[in-house]
Amino acid sequence: METTLQEKNARTKKMMLWFAMISMTMTFAGLTSAYVVSSSRSDWLTSFELPAAFSYSTLVIFLSSVTFFLGKKALNSGRPVAQKLLLWATLGMALLFVYLQFKGFSQIIDQGYYFTGAESSITTSFLYVLVLLHLTHVFGGLIVLLIVLIKTYKNAYSPGQKLGYELAELFWHFLDFLWIYLYVFVRLNN
After folding, report:
1. Mean of the per-residue pLDDT values for the chain?
2. Is residue 81 exposed (0-12), middle (13-18) or buried (19+ Cβ within 10 Å)?
3. Would you say 53 and 101 are in contact if contact means Cβ atoms under 8 Å apart?
4. How much is the pTM?
5. How far apart, in whole angstroms, are the C-alpha atoms of residue 140 and residue 98?
6. How far is CA 67 from the centre of its chain?
7. Cα 91–144–9 angle (5° rounding)?
8. Residue 47 has pLDDT above 80, yes or no
9. d(C-alpha 138, C-alpha 142), whole Å
10. For tag attachment on the chain, is the N or C end more exposed, with fewer CB atoms within 10 Å?
11. Helix 52-76 vs helix 163-188: angle between axes, to the nearest 10 degrees?
12. Measured on CA atoms in the order 5, 9, 12, 18, is the torsion positive or negative?
């Protein structure tokens, strides 16, 4: 059976996204491996408490994945108002996630730990790197989410024409899963 140019294009875009996500996964796998190796250092903090803001942000990003998923269900069932509301909810939670991440950094600083300098520790420096690197990807996800929202208002998506929406949703779920992995990893290795 001969595939159309549109199907080949869709398959190519999906493959490119998967390669990007695998690459990001390898980066974080390397960083978390270095975290484990570094935890045997004598200057590693054993009594450091992960700020509560990171726990709240984990719940928020999980819920944002749920609203994004429900938005696609609304798209598939031809409910554009619900789809738009769910996308706005996803965007709102994404922004709340970013706020809570910076609130977590503020709580780390309040504990007296900085990224570098005399008041830093290898433990919190690793945490800064993991969270900030994830946040850079979240900012990319925010841009993608805004594009999806704009295209939704331009009626660019329909049940038969939703590739961009599906790619954005897949990337957002990846970011959600990645953060949950990082959060659980740091909690278990602290």
Report:
1. 91
2. exposed
3. yes
4. 0.89
5. 12
6. 14
7. 140
8. no
9. 6
10. N
11. 160
12. negative
Let me know: does 182 contact 28? Beta carbons within 8 Å: yes
* 121 and 66 Cβ atoms separated by less than 8 Å: no
Residue 114's DSSP bridge partners are: 120
Angle, CA of 111, 123 and 173, to the nearest 5° = 95
Average pLDDT over every residue of 76-86 = 95
Taking residues 16-30, report their average pLDDT.
94
pLDDT in tens, 100-124: 999 998 998 888 887 777 777 788 8
Element (H, E) at 46: none
Residue 2 scores a pLDDT above 80? no
Q: Spell out the CATH class of 5-41+50-188.
A: mainly alpha
